[in-house]
């Protein structure tokens, strides 16, 4: 028998958690046996701690199947070989999954197959606030968006099942604790016809929003976990979801503005696109006004009409200003870049002014240590390089948003 050392054995019997998982949202019985509808997680470090690796198996397949509407869950596990060596225990995959799947799940495949039928009569929880279509005219897909609060215990039980996805697709996400306060949930479903032509609903994404208190009797809703499930991405569903959230909150006078908790780059890009398209319908964001620079009326109008917060309005201004800048006109483009640079240098200038004031007051006192300024830690050229690279990244993102505006047409066309 060949001698295999334990490191080699470890390598041979270690698999990647993301590769091993196979997720499905089952709409009809054929999906159970078809590979075409399965998809992978983006991450699983909160399940297979710490490095997403699973030890003890060769050819491991973890099946995480959900019925598309009810989200009744099946977990199955298959492998080609399991380690059997003295002192080497395989990881307990089911135990890791049980820690994160908060509701009971099925492990018997035939029983799960039988439970599929219950999905025929599934209807979404909550209040319907928006319906629309996505996709091209040959294959339109109907979406319905429902809003739910924490007062519905049946919904909360349902949401527990939907929550598992945040661990698989949002970095460092935690499950929402409904006892924490004022959460509101927006769920997007596709309304579709099954093979027997009956109407059914399948979950495609959701957002949870925390309504922060704002003095004296107002709220500042913060979008916290926004997710469109992989099979439904790149169809414009996130745009519909963000706009539905705006339409829900804008008429409410208690809402100061709407914010987003640590947006991912992908989400920020969609949000920028939505905010730009919306603001392009406002007088204050006409090309003539944008060319004259940012002004208070832009802040006021964007906040009143769409509840966009100040920082995001500034971003929208910069994107739309670039949109209307003639890139072939050197002078125009340089003026635009100069404005961007100045705005990013301003916080440093403010710190310098504070230091000057401080020195004027305490300068002659040897006991007082003057504050260290961030810019003193770097040399001028390092600072300049950092600024240039920040600007480069910002421009790449702005251009991506502008490309989408150009591709998807002017506001009004895709607004429903
Ligand atoms: C970020 C996220 C919510 C976006 O959802 P989405 O529904 O795919 O978003 P959209 O379809 O509106 O836009 C995404 C892209 O698809 C493109 N797209 C939209 N419709 C399209 C179509 N019909 N054909 C081709 N591309 C299309 C958009 O142009 C955009 O591309 P871009 O990023 O290059 O500009 C989704 O990717 C997701 O859930 N990611 C993981 C979780 C996450 O990061 N959440 C945010 C936490 S804050």
TrEMBL record:
Residues 13-171 form the Histone acetyl transferase HAT1 N-terminal domain. The keyword Lipid metabolism does not apply. It is found in: Nucleus. It catalyses: L-lysyl-[protein] + acetyl-CoA = N(6)-acetyl-L-lysyl-[protein] + CoA + H(+). One of its GO terms (molecular function) is histone acetyltransferase activity. Its EC number is 2.3.1.48. Its main location: nucleus. Keywords: Acyltransferase, Nucleus, Transferase. GO terms for cellular component: chromosome, telomeric region; nucleus. This is Histone acetyltransferase type B catalytic subunit.
């Amino acid at each position: 028998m060949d001698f295999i050392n334990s490191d080699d054995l470890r390598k041979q019997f270690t698999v990647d958690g993301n590769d091993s998982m196979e997720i499905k949202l089952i709409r009809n019985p054929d999906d159970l046996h078809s590979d075409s509808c399965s998809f992978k997680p983006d991450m699983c470090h909160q399940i297979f701690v710490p490095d997403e690796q699973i030890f003890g198996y060769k050819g491991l397949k973890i099946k995480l199947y959900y019925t598309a509407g009810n989200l009744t869950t099946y977990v199955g596990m298959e492998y080609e070989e399991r380690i059997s060596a003295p002192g080497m225990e395989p990881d307990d995959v089911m135990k890791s999954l049980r820690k994160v799947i908060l509701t009971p799940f099925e492990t018997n495949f035939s029983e799960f197959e039988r439970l599929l039928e219950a999905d025929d009569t599934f209807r979404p929880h909550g209040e319907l606030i928006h319906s629309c279509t996505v996709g091209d005219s040959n294959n339109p897909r109907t979406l319905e968006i429902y809003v739910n609060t924490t007062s519905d215990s049946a919904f909360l039980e349902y949401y527990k099942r939907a929550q598992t996805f945040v661990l698989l697709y949002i970095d460092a996400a935690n499950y929402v604790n409904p006892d924490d306060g004022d959460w509101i949930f927006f769920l997007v479903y596709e309304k579709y016809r099954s093979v027997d032509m009956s109407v059914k609903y399948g979950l495609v994404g959701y957002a949870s929003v925390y309504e922060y208190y704002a003095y004296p009797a107002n709220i500042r809703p913060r979008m916290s976990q926004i997710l469109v499930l992989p099979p439904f991405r790149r169809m414009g569903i996130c745009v519909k979801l963000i706009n539905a959230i705006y339409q829900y909150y804008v008429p409410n006078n208690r809402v100061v503005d709407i914010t987003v908790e640590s947006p991912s780059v992908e989400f920020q890009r969609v949000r920028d696109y939505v905010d730009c398209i919306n603001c392009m319908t406002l007088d204050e964001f006409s090309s003539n006004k944008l060319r004259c620079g940012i002004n208070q009326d832009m802040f006021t109008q964007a906040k009143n009409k769409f509840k966009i917060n100040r920082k995001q309005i500034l971003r929208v201004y910069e994107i739309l200003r670039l949109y209307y800048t003639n890139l072939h006109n050197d002078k125009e483009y340089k003026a635009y870049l100069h404005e961007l640079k100045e705005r990013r240098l301003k916080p440093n200038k403010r710190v310098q002014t504070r230091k000057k004031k401080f020195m004027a007051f305490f300068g002659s006192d040897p006991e007082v240590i003057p504050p260290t300024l961030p810019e003193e830690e770097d040399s001028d050229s390092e600072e300049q390089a950092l600024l240039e690279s920040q600007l480069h990244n910002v421009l790449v993102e702005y251009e991506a948003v502008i490309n989408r505006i150009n591709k998807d047409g002017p506001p009004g066309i895709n607004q429903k």
